[in-house]
Design a protein that fits this description.
Order of helices and strands: HHHEEHHH
CATH superfamily of the largest domain: Winged helix-like DNA-binding domain superfamily/Winged helix DNA-binding domain
Oligomer: single chain
Structural class: mainly alpha
Shape: elongated
Radius of gyration: 16 Å
Number of helices: 6
CATH architecture of the largest domain: Orthogonal Bundle
CATH topology of the largest domain: Arc Repressor Mutant, subunit A
Distance between the termini: 40 Å
Largest sheet: 2 strands, antiparallel
Strand order of the largest sheet: 1-2
Low-confidence stretches: none
CATH class of the largest domain: Mainly Alpha
Strand content: under 5%
Helix content: 55-70%
Mean pLDDT: 91
Length: 124
C-alpha cells in the first residue's frame, strides 16, 4: 500500500508523540495535529487496515514495523531539512513549515545528497 502525504503525517505525529508519552491515543493525535476526532478516527482506521499501526482495546496506538519504518524516514527528513534551512539563515518557524512541505516529496537521491552535504560540515 502506497501512503499519501496525509498518512505519512499521521505516522510521523504518532512517532513524535510516542517519544513524548508512554501511550498515544487518537485524541492525542487530534490535539497535536489540530484535526477533528472524526477525521483522526477515519485516518487511524485506514492506517490500521493498511498494517501501519495497531490499536489495542484501550485505544492505545502503536506503530507496526512498517509504520515505524515510514515514520522514522519522514521524521529524519523533517529534522534534516529543518537543520539545513536554519543553517542557511531561514528563521525557525519557516524552516519547520518548509521542511514539513518538502519532506514528503524530496527524492531519496536528493535527500541523501543533502545529508552528505550537511555531514561534510559545509554549512558550519
Amino acid at each position: 500500500m502506497n501512503l499519501q502525504e496525509s498518512g505519512e503525517m499521521y505516522l510521523e505525529t504518532i512517532l513524535v508523540l510516542s517519544k513524548k508519552k508512554d501511550v498515544v491515543r487518537s485524541i492525542d493525535v487530534a490535539e497535536e495535529m489540530g484535526f477533528s476526532k472524526p477525521s483522526v478516527s477515519r485516518a487511524v482506521g485506514l492506517l490500521k487496515s493498511g498494517g501501519y499501526i495497531t490499536v489495542d482495546i484501550n485505544g492505545y496506538i502503536e506503530l507496526t514495523d512498517a509504520g515505524r519504518e515510514i515514520s522514522e524516514k519522514i521524521y529524519e527528513r523533517h529534522t534534516v531539512l529543518t537543520k539545513f534551512f536554519k543553517a542557511i539563515g531561514v528563521d525557525s518557524e519557516t524552516a519547520v513549515d518548509d521542511a514539513c512541505k518538502i519532506e514528503h516529496d524530496i527524492s531519496d537521491v536528493s535527500f541523501d545528497a543533502l545529508k552528505r552535504f550537511l555531514d561534510n560540515g559545509l554549512t558550519k
